[in-house]
Request: fold
Amino acid sequence: MAEPLYVPVLPTRRDAWNAYAHLELGVRQRIAPLWTVVPRVGPERPRGTTLVPDPDSDREGLHHWLTLRLDHLINVMTGLTGWVDTAHVESLLDASVPSLWRLTTGSSLRLVTGPERDPALQWYAADLAFLGGRGLGIRVLLDDAPDEPLSTRLLTLIDRLRLPPSRLDLLLDAGSAEDGDDTGKRALAALVPWRTVVLTSGAFPRAPRHLDAQPAQVLRRQLRLPR
Reply:
């Protein structure tokens, strides 16, 4: 896809996709959202974590809920590109298979995986990406340094997926900007010849009433490239 000017991280909720759908077509064509499928049961999980056992054990309920949600997303994104992260709902594969199959074969959206996720789910996402022919996004969380060097885990994931770098998109997730956040974030863009490299980072008021009390400001973020 053409390099997007803006990559917003959006939840798969009605207010988010309605706001996106109401943008002018010319604007939407320069935006490639990273849609994060919210969990059907319970709150969103902390970034980079999974819950075992998964709190959603109702396979039939998840199948029906996810089918409606992803079909609506496919309709909203008709002819447009972006990524979809299904980390909150992908552990029950028998419930999510039909929806994820339609997503990867019937739309221009690309699935997302990450180095911290279960290898079986990484392989499954890579298989769907291969069958869909549109490649795969790798979402890397740029938080505190992990026990194992992130570059090592990322290269291990790339080797496991067996997809050429020309079909992989690197999504560097620096999280939300907070007051006084001057943490240096590590970038991994130089590891392989990625098809697309995206840095996501930003902030938004938790509620409209915060706009007056907390006016907009510019926060500096640091990005260190490997030598």
